[in-house]
Design brief:
Number of domains: 2
GO biological process, one term: acyl-CoA metabolic process
InterPro entries: AB_hydrolase_fold (IPR029058), Acyl-CoA_thioEstase_long-chain (IPR016662), BAAT_C (IPR014940), Thio_Ohase/aa_AcTrfase (IPR006862), Thio_Ohase/BAAT_N (IPR042490)
Family: Belongs to the C/M/P thioester hydrolase family.
CATH superfamily of the largest domain: Alpha/Beta hydrolase fold, catalytic domain
Structural class: alpha/beta
Number of helices: 8
Oligomer: single chain
GO molecular function, one term: fatty acyl-CoA hydrolase activity
CATH class of the largest domain: Alpha Beta
Largest sheet: 8 strands, mixed
Active site: 241 (charge relay system), 333 (charge relay system), 368 (charge relay system)
CATH topology of the largest domain: Rossmann fold
Helix content: 10-25%
């Protein structure tokens, strides 16, 4: 027995952590100079498989450290500690138009990681791995509570950090795809913010979008404000796409909503407040009647609002914004003219004398769906138009590596921005307790 040579060893540390935490992957006890492939496989809640892989060569000690060594091939290249996560893509033969999103935030995202002999690019599921490990990626840190909201006509979900509070609050709004999207709010609560993910689409049976009225969003803001764990004067608006436009509209025009700060990801101001909050259904109908497509027949919506209008009545009066606002802009956004909107907002705010409140983060080759870090780029995906129930594939834009860098950088700066403007002693991250 003493003559047995131990087999290869693959370790992932931490094996359990938040989705925005980096982990280390190390392979040991292999021959020096050996070609190996590290492979990640994840089964989504829709039962679709997503994979990523990198080609490595062991060092003189027969080891590979993903944080320190370069991938010479595969779904990512170079020294990319989290490449096995942000380069995940549907396995060959999968359904078209897939988007990877966590629906049950009370359970972890499981990523099965394996190491294989040689530089291979296919046949992983039939191959026998040299070693295996499982990484558990959570949106909810221990102690975070999920509480459903059904009051004042508002539907949503609170995510509450552990502890007595009071905590800063966030009203979290997603885009025109509708539904209740919770994972960003769960992650915000894991960093010490009470966050409410709110639902304001789809349409009701009569075709009326009762969620897109200013009173609906004002009610949602008040629900956050009145929560016993929330510091009532320390609430932020956080929106992506249509949610970003709603955030801008509320900050610019609502007499009842006074956020401490706003974070807006790839949205804009090219609707009047009335148009956005009352007539958006009709505007989306117009938008979907005719739109250009790329060579893959994926719909491109960004040009629908270009050129940026000069008529002030067609834009929100961002000169009235009185709180710090951060715009996160993907310069390859193919869904909305977010870069042009940011430029026009900056001009309008400068003329109004409140440009000191504006921060713009612009990311070359990043697309529309800038989300928490270490999650894969969704360049295009299926989309159900809420007004017509038509199914299209929308082009969101972005390239994998620049988009991954944008997500990591913007998330770090978002947390810093929120902590700066909503600061309390409870706002420190608690992910280390996982």
């Amino acid at each position: 027995m003493s003559g047995l040579v131990p087999g290869p060893l693959l370790t992932v540390r931490p094996s359990r952590g938040l989705v925005d935490e980096k982990f280390e992957m190390v392979v040991k006890k292999l021959p020096p100079g050996q070609e190996v492939t590290l492979y990640a496989l994840h089964q989504s809640e829709d039962s679709d498989y997503w994979e990523a892989f990198g080609h490595y060569i062991t060092d003189a000690q027969g080891a590979v450290s993903v944080a320190e060594d370069v991938s010479v091939g595969g779904s990512y290249l170079g020294m990319e500690p989290m490449g096995l996560l942000w380069s995940l893509r549907p396995v060959p033969g999968s359904r078209t138009g897939l988007r990877l999103r966590k629906m049950d935030v009370c359970s972890p995202m499981l990523v099965h990681i394996s190491v294989h002999r040689g530089h291979i690019s296919q046949g992983f599921r039939e191959a026998t791995p040299l070693a295996c490990a499982v990484a558990k990626r959570w949106y909810m840190a221990p102690g975070v509570r999920r509480v459903e909201v059904r009051e004042k006509g508002v539907k949503g979900t609170f995510f509450l950090p552990p502890g007595p509070g009071p905590f800063p609050g966030v009203l979290d709004m997603w885009g025109g795809g509708g539904g209740l999207v919770e994972y960003r709010s769960a992650l915000l609560a894991s960093h010490g913010f009470v966050s409410m993910a709110m639902e304001y689409l789809p349409l009701d049976k009569s075709g009326t979008n009762v969620g897109l009225t200013i009173s609906y969003f004002e009610n949602a803001f008040r629900i956050v404000q009145e929560h016993p764990l929330v510091a009532a004067d320390r609430i932020a608006l956080f929106g992506l796409s249509l949610g970003a436009s709603v955030s801008i509209a509320l900050a610019a025009s609502s007499s009842d909503v006074h956020p401490r700060c706003c974070v807006c990801v790839n949205g804009g101001h090219i609707q009047s407040t009335d148009m956005l909050l009352k007539d958006t259904v009709n505007e989306i109908k117009k938008l979907t009647l005719k739109f250009p497509t790329d060579e893959n027949n994926h719909a491109i919506w960004r040009n629908s609002i270009l050129p940026i209008p000069d008529d002030p009545s067609q834009k929100m009066n961002v000169g009235k914004i009185k709180c710090p606002i951060m715009l996160i802009v993907g310069l390859d956004d193919q869904n909305w003219a977010s870069a042009e909107c940011a430029e026009d907002m900056e001009r309008m705010m400068k003329e109004a004398g409140n440009s000191h409140l504006l921060t713009v983060l612009s990311y070359p080759e990043a697309g529309h769906l800038i989300e928490p870090p270490f999650t894969p780029l969704i360049r295009s995906s299926n989309f159900i138009v809420q007004t017509t129930r038509e199914k299209v594939i929308l082009l969101w834009g972005g390239q994998p590596k620049p988009h991954a860098d944008a997500q990591e950088d913007s998330w770090r700066k978002t947390l810093q921005f929120l902590q700066t403007h909503l600061y309390q002693r409870h706002s420190a991250a608690i992910g280390s307790k996982l």
